[in-house]
Inverse folding.
């Protein structure tokens, strides 16, 4: 078959994207053998379009998915939308456009951008968390938690703007003021729903040891949970009251000189400063060890919600206590710490061992509209009652006023409370008007992907067993809370017997975080800096394959990398070279050139190993070497076929085009098998290179095929060869001629 001269990426890419969609090429097998579940952190479809930084992870998982399919695995590679959230609601407040409408318009744009990048998602698995068919199960899982005693309501402070009369998320509070109207924000106590994640604190730590995650991400999880082993020690005050302190250093009890207790007002007022502020209470307590009188101070640096909310002040061994002691002229005693004191305190009954956590229960109530309603009903006589399962979903009403009115927007709906009765006594009752944190949606969406159309269950245990856990999860490593919450949900569902016990207690076996892509100005790519590069700017001009290759070639997957347009242009030239190799080297069925064949098998080995390690940049580098080696030669069909396959995960369109149109195959390259390498061939990889001086053979070098490609290296080695060196001593080298892999000739 005759191919065109110049590679026209525009028509080639459009053609194959259409064919793949028509043929449902990436459909997930229904009865998987050897499954692999490859998952991206699903995006929030924001008003800003996707940029090349977002695509990095998606291309990375796409390369992996395509590779694994060719290796014969059944792959689940789905995509969906984290569609609920505050920005769409704020946009509605500004413009009056309903969040449902703006969100779905954004989804369309995102989906087009993903499709134009040649990503092999199975779109029949698409999830939208704002769809009632999805959030009914989010509500169902909330009720599961409630029934297990893991969801409860209690008063908790929220950020409150007294002018707008609305609850603010932390990120809406700028320097203590409302981001909208600049009014100082106050703390207001509201009844709020919590999930008891603290009950899983220990398992959330211990589970980390069995999973393949970046160490820094594991450490973030551990720090967030903040497990501390210590003691609670009791100090008697003069008025007979007992003050309990939590300490990790009972061995320093012999140097304690004061007690510091938390104070809500001081804490709130000075929580953003480092300075120590105290107020003497006028009271004293007694150190049980030595009878010393310890003044009791209220301070800002003791957190009310942590430990017992009181500490023993040990200036000599604790910096904060030292600052406090210096500022207020308190005693400083420095006895040697004594590890025997742990035992003594317990024996004497002054205190007991205690473990505490920095992790707090998860506050999921939002006094907001664009989220799943909390499925609870309040009855004056029966209290809080769960909505019966058959009545799910509790749908978000449409007739709401988004403008702040001091209540949850849903409370303004005229229909939401109509005909609501208490599920227990049948009397008229009221629905909860709060919605759930959108982190709840993303805590279980990865399970739904196994069975996204199920209308009877959140997912069948059969499908869960078939596809979970997630084998490779790719997305920002900074998402500490998402990862913690999702692991928590998995464990709760697991404990409820809804996940087959042969599955592990962890949902994400391997995690990889792509490094930031910096804008051309070396700042993190972001709308805020105006340095965003979108796929829409790159793909029409250079093609999706060029973009994909470039993004995977920029550097190691997990480190920060600067964007460069000249890099894109360079990759574009490589794509043309690649095309030319196929276009001019076609149709020759002779046995391959020996050297090229060795290099091919070395390349197969290297690319295979590199892809599995996410070392995409070095995989592409070795493909470039191979292309250089066969450029301008009549390459055999075997070499060209294998090269096409190796390139297929990275440049799926070009690979398909040459596979079908030039190499004459009838089925898609993406359904063929990955090339195997001949281990014996690679062993016999040494080439004999003759060293000549002025055309006379003087010595010989043995080099592997890869090293023999590098002229400078060969020259250096040849010069240092003992026999050859004799002929070069004191001679001026005028010229070096190198015939790759064969002869190096020094003209002196
Ligand atoms: C005496 C002492 C001596 C302490 C010493 C530390 C060093 P982590 O590791 O974070 O658990 N602490 C206890 N409750 C506190 C609270 N509500 N707010 C602020 N600080 C609190 O730290 C536990 C240590 O932090 C405890 O051990 C206590 O000070 C302090 F050389 O007790 B320590
Ligand atoms: Zn009732």
């Amino acid at each position: 078959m005759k191919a065109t001269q110049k590679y026209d990426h525009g028509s080639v890419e459009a053609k194959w994207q259409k064919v793949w969609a028509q043929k449902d090429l990436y459909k997930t097998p229904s009865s998987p053998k050897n499954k692999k579940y490859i998952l991206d952190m699903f995006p929030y479809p924001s008003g800003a379009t996707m940029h090349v930084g977002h695509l990095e992870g998606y291309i990375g998982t796409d390369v992996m998915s395509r590779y694994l399919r060719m290796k014969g695995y059944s792959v689940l590679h789905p995509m969906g939308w984290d569609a609920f959230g505050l920005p769409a609601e704020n946009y509605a407040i500004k413009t009056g456009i309903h969040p449902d409408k703006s969100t779905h318009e954004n989804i369309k744009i995102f989906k087009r951008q993903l499709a134009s990048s040649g990503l092999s998602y199975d779109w029949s698995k698409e999830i939208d968390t704002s769809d009632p068919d999805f959030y009914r199960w989010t509500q169902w899982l909330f009720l599961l938690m409630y029934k297990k005693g893991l969801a409860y309501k209690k008063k908790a402070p929220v950020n409150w703007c007294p002018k707008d009369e609305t609850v603010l998320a932390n990120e809406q509070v700028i320097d203590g003021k409302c981001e909208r109207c600049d009014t100082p924000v106050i703390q207001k106590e509201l009844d709020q729903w919590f999930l008891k994640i603290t009950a899983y604190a220990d398992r959330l730590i211990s589970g980390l040891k069995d999973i393949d995650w970046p160490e820094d991400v594991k450490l973030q999880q551990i720090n967030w949970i903040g497990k501390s082993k210590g003691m609670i020690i009791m100090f008697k005050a003069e008025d007979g009251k007992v003050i309990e302190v939590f300490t990790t250093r009972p061995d320093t009890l012999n140097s304690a000189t004061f007690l510091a207790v938390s104070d809500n007002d001081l804490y709130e007022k000075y929580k953003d400063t480092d300075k120590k502020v105290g107020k003497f209470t006028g009271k004293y307590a007694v150190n049980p060890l030595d009878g010393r009188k310890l003044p009791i101070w209220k301070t800002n640096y003791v957190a009310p919600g942590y430990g017992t909310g009181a500490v023993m002040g040990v200036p000599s061994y604790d910096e904060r206590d030292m600052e406090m002691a210096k500022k207020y002229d308190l005693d400083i005693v420095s006895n040697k710490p004594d590890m025997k004191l742990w035992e003594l305190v317990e024996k004497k009954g002054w205190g007991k061992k205690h473990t505490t956590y920095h992790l707090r229960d998860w506050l999921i109530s939002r006094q907001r509209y664009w989220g799943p309603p909390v499925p609870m009903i309040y009855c004056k006589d029966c209290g809080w009652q769960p909505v019966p399962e058959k009545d799910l979903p509790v749908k978000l009403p449409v007739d709401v006023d988004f403008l702040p009115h001091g209540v949850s927007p849903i409370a303004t709906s005229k229909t939401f409370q109509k005909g609501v009765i208490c599920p227990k006594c049948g009397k008229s009752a009221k629905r909860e008007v709060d919605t759930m944190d959108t982190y709840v949606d993303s805590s279980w969406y990865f399970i739904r992907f196994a069975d996204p159309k199920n209308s009877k269950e959140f997912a069948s245990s059969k499908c869960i067993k078939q596809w979970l856990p997630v084998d490779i999860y790719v997305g920002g490593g900074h998402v500490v809370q998402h990862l913690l919450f999702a692991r928590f949900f998995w464990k709760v569902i697991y404990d409820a017997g809804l996940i087959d016990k042969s599955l592990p207690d962890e949902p994400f076996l391997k995690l990889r975080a792509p490094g930031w892509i910096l804008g051309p100005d070396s700042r993190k790519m972001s709308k805020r800096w105006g340095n965003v590069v979108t796929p829409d700017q790159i793909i029409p001009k250079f093609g999706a394959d060029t973009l994909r290759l470039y993004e995977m070639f920029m550097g190691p997957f997990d480190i920060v990398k600067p964007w460069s347009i000249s890099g894109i242009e360079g990759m574009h030239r490589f794509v043309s070279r690649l095309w030319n190799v196929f276009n001019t080297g076609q149709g020759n069925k002779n046995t391959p050139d020996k050297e090229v064949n060795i290099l091919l098998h070395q390349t197969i080995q290297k690319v295979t190993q590199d892809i599995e390690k996410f070392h995409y940049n070095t995989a592409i580098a070795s493909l470039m070497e191979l292309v250089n080696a066969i450029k301008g030669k009549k390459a055999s069909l075997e070499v060209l076929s294998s090269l096409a396959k190796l390139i297929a995960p990275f440049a799926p369109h070009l690979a398909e085009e040459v596979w079908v149109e030039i190499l004459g195959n009838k089925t898609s390259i993406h359904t063929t098998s990955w090339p195997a390498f001949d281990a014996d061939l690679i062993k016999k990889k040494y080439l004999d290179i003759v060293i000549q001086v002025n055309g006379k053979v003087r010595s010989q070098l043995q080099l592997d095929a890869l090293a023999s490609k590098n002229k400078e290296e060969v020259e250096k080695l040849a010069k240092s060869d003992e026999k050859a060196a004799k002929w070069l001593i004191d001679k001026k080298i005028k010229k070096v001629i190198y015939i790759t892999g064969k002869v190096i000739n020094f003209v002196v």
Q: What stands out?
A: The longest strand covers residues 151-161.
